[in-house]
Amino acid sequence: MMNLFFRGICLSIPFFGLSQHFKEVQIPKPDSATYSYAQVEPSIAINPLKPKEMIAGTVMDDYYYSTNGGRKWKSKTLRSKYGVNGDPVMHIDQKGRYYYFHLASPKTFGHHLDRIVCQSSSTIEGDFNQGSYTAPEGVKVQDKHWVTENSLNGELYLTWTQFDAYLSEKPGDSSHIMFAKSSDQGETWSAPKRISQRGGDCLDDDNTVEGAVPAVGPDGTIYVAWTGPNGLVFTKSTDGGETWLEKEIDVAQQVEGWTLTIPGIYRANGLPILRCNPKTGDLFLNWADQRNGTGDTDIWISKSSDSGETWSDPIKVNQDESKRHQFFTWLSIDPITGYLYVVYYDRRSTEGNATDVYLSVSKDNGDSFTDYKVSSSSFVPDDKVFFGDYTNIAVYDGVIRPVWSRMDEKEISLWVALISQKQLDKINK
């Protein structure tokens, strides 16, 4: 097992953001890891009953856990009879049960990426059950899932993209957004239901519908947003997922599409993240696009205060004017304070492809943001090495845990920062 490392950030207050001594912890790679690009596409969750407990996952089948607030981590490899094929999504429910959602390709009784698997455990050590799964539909490919929980009844809501035939150029083959739910802590799942009225192609590009992220309102309304040929769109269900809008609501255009070209990055996208502020009921949709030019990717957010019927014009999250790239965004909202936290890669103060990690925070429900540099040093990615599709962040009652991958000399490592809202408040005094 790899040693743990801590990094301190040198104090500086440049014009483009605030920097402070945030502690960084390297999360060790499992000894059994065999995937060439392990420790990319991280997902992290905080236990709402025991906030010092945290779990994380990375592609392809890595699992990590901490019982002391993220200061030390243990790692292992996830196993399932259905196979573990990446896109980890971590969740800890309101009863303290631990979940690891992932793609699967059963070798002897299924097809390539034909289901989403949900493995769960009553203990944090990673003794997961063999899991349940969403019902396959022949050889159709299931991809890019995310999950949320209804705090009123404990139901789990899962959304993802279904491809009729992955990478098919045939006009008759389509991609659609799917939905399923579990009312028994992931033991069983409802039959997958198509919820997108307008589909996309199967090329896994701008005209494919992808990035479906669910959220739940204080009254139990289920919300889902995604992107594709019609830009950023939104739908909702007020009856537990039985029925959905007859037509999606258009939120905003994603200028230059959701597949982005970022120098030094093997593959980049600006897929959206939907969140509901439990304190206000307001919805927030976060994404990256190039409306300011292909050399100036920025992070954006749009807000709805009427259950998604109307949306604000895009609000720029990153507060710099550098005309440099910000990308791989992720949004989390503290369920206790209602504060918004957005983590992303940033090149505002670097040269070439050198990349930092930044955090933007809003304490006024998305009306304004303050930027903080999180990473103590820049890294330079290599566009020949797969680097995943996103970063991630979990927040609970002022405990802030952004997680990201970095690349040094083509070697990938995984890091988490230990930040508290109290620290940020002190910086701003």
Polypeptide structure, described:
- With 429 residues, the chain is mainly β.
- It has a domain at 32-133.
- It is built from 1 helix and 32 strands.
- The chain has one helix at residues 421-427; strands spanning 6-7, 18-19, 23-27, 40-46, 54-59, 62-66, 74-77, 89-92, 98-104, 115-121, 132-133, 141-149, 156-163, 175-182, 193-194, 210-216, 222-227, 232-237, 249-252, 259-260, 268-269, 273-276, 283-289, 298-304, 315-316, 326-333, 340-346, 356-362, 370-373, 392-396, 399-408, 411-420.
- The strands form 8 sheets. It has a 5-stranded antiparallel sheet. Strands 2-29-28-27-26 form a 5-stranded mixed sheet, with no helix packed on it.
Concise summary:
This protein is mainly β and 429 residues long. The chain contains one helix and 32 strands. The relative contact order is 0.13.
List its traits.
mainly beta, 5-stranded antiparallel sheet, 32 strands
Strand order of the largest sheet: 1-3-32-31-30
Mean pLDDT, rounded to whole units? 94
- What percent strand? 35-45%
Number of helices, where a helix is a run of at least 4 consecutive DSSP H or I residues: 1
Question: What is the CA-atom radius of gyration, in angstroms?
Answer: 20 Å
Task: Please mark out the parts with pLDDT under 50 across 5 or more consecutive residues, or reply none.
Answer: 1-15
Q: What structural class should be given to the helix and strand makeup?
A: mainly beta
Largest beta-sheet details: 5 strands, antiparallel
Number of strands: 32
Helix content: under 10%
C-alpha end-to-end distance: 41 Å
Shape: globular
